[in-house]
Amino acid sequence: MRGRSHDEGARRKRAARAALASMAAAAISAAGVAPVRAEPPATPLRVRLEFIRGPGAEECPDEQLLRAETVRAMGGVDPYDAEAAFTMTASIERRRGKLAASMFLRDGDGHGRWFDGFSAYDDCKVLVTAMALSIAVLLDDAAELAAPPGVPAKPASPPAPPEEPCSPDRPCPPQPAHAPPPPPRTAPPVRAPPRSSALPRIPAGRLSWVAGLGAVTGLGMTPGVAGGPALSFGARWPAWSVTLEVRGLASLSGNVEAVDVSVSTLTTDVVFCLDRRSLFACGLAELGILHAAPNVPLNATSRLNLHSGFGARAGIEWPLSENLSARAHADVVRPVAGAAILRHPGAPEPERPVWRAPALAVALGIGLQARF
Length: 372
Known about the structure:
It is a single chain. With 372 residues, this protein is an alpha+beta fold. The protein is built from four helices and 15 strands. The protein has helices spanning 2-31, 63-73, 124-138, 142-146, and strands at 47-53, 86-95, 98-106, 112-120, 208-219, 225-236, 240-251, 255-256, 259-276, 279-296, 303-319, 324-337, 340-341, 355-356, 361-371. The strands form three sheets. The chain has an eight-stranded antiparallel barrel with strand order 5-6-7-9-10-11-12-15. Strands 1-2-3-4 form a four-stranded mixed beta sheet, covered by helices on one side. Strands 13-14 form a two-stranded antiparallel ribbon. α1 runs antiparallel to α3 (124-138) and α2 (63-73) crosses α3 (124-138). It is rod-shaped. The protein starts with a helix and ends with a strand.
């Protein structure tokens, strides 16, 4: 009966400590300030730290900040030891547009002893500070975690009786000339953390396929302003991506130097992007065809024109769900081979074009991108 009361009391203490850690973590996420303990614990629990930055958290601070903030929260005591029997696994990853942090403690036999987690939007430093505070609150009661739950603590051995002093009636026992050296201490082997279903699974940063649909408007690709749809398909890694984009644009202006002409262009762009959180910067190579179809007068003949160029793109991304995001971007392209529209393409004498592609073309686009 006494052992059962002890177990119930230990569970109540762990529940109260977990609630305090969660409330403190919520406060640190809102205020961004970590309190410092006035006095360190006498015997803090030593743990081996494993720190993981998952997909979307590559730019977050490394484990040095977590170590420093834990030491500061524990009043200068460092609880981390590479040879400790307990293992604390702390991980950060981006889930559905938010940074999610989780902490899991295992004992030397691989049994889960404690778990906590919370999330923030974009402030990795505040999130790591909150993790350090939660770990510090947990390690405050080291004696309770030292023994598995439900196992009574080992009773202390009775004190040895005081040894009688030496006297003429009771001579001291002979002492050896040289005491044998103590046996060398061997460090306990470092146990690899076993796989446990209680530990959140963090997906590796591997290749994923993306497909996009959007609308583009541009200036400098046709006479006047042009607009139309855009389709894209490609591959994406956590930090960069490559896509193939096809755009069909039609000129909104139907008049070129008093000639009614319907002008359209079909372009293919290969886009290489560097992705950093919600921003991305890209380089692109473009190849396209310009088509001009006259209405009146009849002497304005049709012509197909190949054009190509290189440019840059910058944009922003808004996550809508785990696999869907909205994107907006701006392009600047410098033609290498520019297109032109002539009145008489087959004339023997060169003539001035009625329209020629300018030195720079700009475009604005917006759309959706899905990840598979």
